Amino acid sequence: MDDSIFFESLDERRLAISSKYRIPIVPPNHGHGRPWGGIIDDTLGIFPEELRMNAEDELVKRKLFWFKYLYNIKKQLEKSDVVIVGIPTDIDVEYRHGARFGPRAIRDASFQFSPYTEYNCDLSSFRICDIGDVEVHPYVLDEDMWKEDDIYRIQYHQYLQDKEIPPKWTGNIQRIEWTLKWMLGYKIPQMNTILPNMSPTYGSKNPIPVIIGGGHGISFPCIKAVFDSLDDNERDNFFVIYFDAHPDLLKRRSGLEKTHASQATRVAEHLYNNLESHPDGRIIQIGVRDIEEEERETRKEYKIKWLKMGGLDKDYEADEICRYRDVNNSFNKIREWLRLSNDKGNIYLYISVDIDVLDAGLIPGTGTPDIGGLSGRELIDLLHQVVSEKEIKLYGLDVVETAPDRNIGNISGVTSVRVIWETIGTYLKTHNRSGGYVRK
Fold first, then answer.
1. Residue ranges of domains in the chain, CATH in brackets
2. pLDDT band, very low/low/confident/very high, at 152 (cuts 50, 70, 90)
3. Phi and psi at residue 43, in whole multiples of 5°?
């Protein structure tokens, strides 16, 4: 492929060659079979063969190949209805590791599914693009952990010694946030790794980002990226729904602020600090049951809504979801909290599904399993009801804490695929999309 098509001038080409960094996206390991029910066609070829280079190749060629690589991703993003990206990290998890293998397990499980959902939505009629994984750092959660300039400089030169191009941003929180923002067409400041024509440009349609994890700590930078890309009207009507056994509302865990146990606190803080009107009640948590006292206080501070699995703590005004297994009644409460009955226009929604919301007897393959959770049927029914509301505009979905080495037969990976399929398929079908979702 002639690289001149990517550059408008020789000066632009020289700038590409002199760029110090690259966007941290790497090809996925699809495993065997055809992922995502075989509905992806030429998008499986977006990773050029030239990327599979050995260590003897020249660094300049590597840089040019990375520009071809990003160019191909950009073109696929611009014509896709749904974009899937994996985030294979769980260094923010305190108990059982293994969710870093979640993206691979989910892709491996997806090949057995047909492209049809329960509501008979044929997902093969939509453009679904899997752009690979965010290239996460194996050890560094947050770049605030590496404040010294010497450490950045040493790492940069070590990449060059290995004839590699350093990825932009050091900490995983920053890599995830800014990679998602780049995917969403957000104008990234001081980005010397991508030329202006390498950023995706969208008209009235944006692809729905589907993030497969990974520990639950990835949700904070993902939600932040989606929220920051919205205009003022969209932000005023933005909500987050969590399906999770744990509120994740601690201030810190093991001295760190950005972990799987505190990510919802960071989301609440960001929404509260960036919404001028009605910042309360923007977070709804469904299925919570393992709750620490500090999390109850954080919940009251940010007016977070709970649909608990059970309990008698009525003083906390927490509605129960499954004491009587009444999914319809639970959904009516969710409609009320989302203000769907107020005729205030569209509601812009991000959904985060921690697979441990399901009963541990069904899904042991997760980082922090807990008994007494939702059944698979209850989770799917609630997701169906939420995304089929005509006022809902789905702006993001993540499915996290899938730890395949903790169960038999990759049941957590299979379950995660079904959650993604039913959520996306129901949304696209009930909103009468003939291809793509209209952002505004």
1. 3-438 (3.40.800.10)
2. low
3. -65, -20
